[in-house]
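Fold this complex.
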Amino acid sequence: MDQAALKKLPRGWKGIPSDLGSDQTAFKGVNWGKGMMWIFLLSDTFIFSCFLLSYMTGRGSTVQPWPNPSEVFALDVFGVPVPLLLIAIMTFVLITSSGTMAMAVKYGYEKNRKLCGIFLLLTALGGLTFVGMQAFEWSKLIHEGVRPWENPFGAPQFGSFFFMITGFHGTHVSIGVIFLIIFTRKVFRGDFDSGRKGYFTSMKSDYVAIEILGLYWHFVDLVWVFIFAFFYLW
Amino acid sequence: MAENIKKEQATTHKLGIYLWIWGLLFVLSFFSYMVDWLQFQGLLRWTLILIFMFLKAGLIMAFFMHLFWERYTLVNVLLWPMTAIATFVGLMVAESKYTVFTRFFYFVLGS
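Structure:
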């Protein structure tokens, strides 16, 4: 649907009955891949919600004291423990990579191949840094004796929730990094300008693919906002 | 052709918006880190954490994920299911309160 036809449709709340009651497409002007990505992200939201909810239930129902995340995740800087230092850096790195991703989407739509590719690469580097710091955090906690069934700090459930939630999020980041690298290559090669067919899909694509990838990446950042609030700060 | 490109460029958003949101996310993250740094406790801590969390989530969804510019049909399809999660949270809060009560009553006091 082109922009001119979109502009003629009723906007705001009136658009809902008119869109849903219309022929063929409910999501007017939304690329099908983008619509599918949103539906996937909705289902992913439910998965992460279930993890965080089980964590809430576990933490709320244990009779042992919950480990103080401020102390557990503290990092020694020249012998002085700084609370949550690594987590704060990870948060800023992920937000930065989200910002560069937004730039990549913007420059993609402007068909600025070079800047789009550079910002995609920066995003991938940010994601890689994040995963690296998470691996460091995991190994530090494992050295300190945190296991899914026990830990030296308090309630034994702490470990299982920690590894499950951050592990699942880290997997999402890793998958995102892989796709960012693949799409960086595609952008620099000019696939979205030349209409070169994709290897797996054997279909032509254009820069809307960068926005779809961006949706996934921003979602990973979004989930981290909730994990940061509920697991590390609460 | 040139006109066509010009038209497409007009539909992308200004760079300034992204930089602003980026900056705001940095500031909000800094504030939520400060909540821990200053060791706020109790209701104040939980309220501040939730406020900063929802502000950040809202900014990311509205501007980075472009929901602010999407048609209401998509926005509503995505946001209404969140009420199911909110309901689930309510159920599980009640459930965990009951569980911790029985555990204290039978295992801690009873042992």
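Chain A touches chain B through 60 residues (CB under 8 Å).
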